[in-house]
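Request: Show me your protein:
***
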Amino acid sequence: MTRKLQKMQRFWNVMTVIIYGVFLPLSCLFMALGEKLPYALFFFMFALPYIEQAGMDHLHRKEMNR
């Protein structure tokens, strides 16, 4: 794995921890306290694996063409 791929994978791992480990529990807490449903967060929660895979595939193809 090249250095760029490692850095990008580390970035996606951090983003995953932040979204699933911080924002999701906080939004559930706020929903329990009476706030509105955070549609954008739920969209990113379900779409993040697909976004990550597409970004990593793009970077991998770009590295292979060099």
User: Anything to note?
Assistant: The two ends are 14 Å apart (CA to CA). The chain has a mean pLDDT of 88. The CA atoms of residues 27 and 42 lie 10 Å apart. Helices lie at 3-32, 39-64.
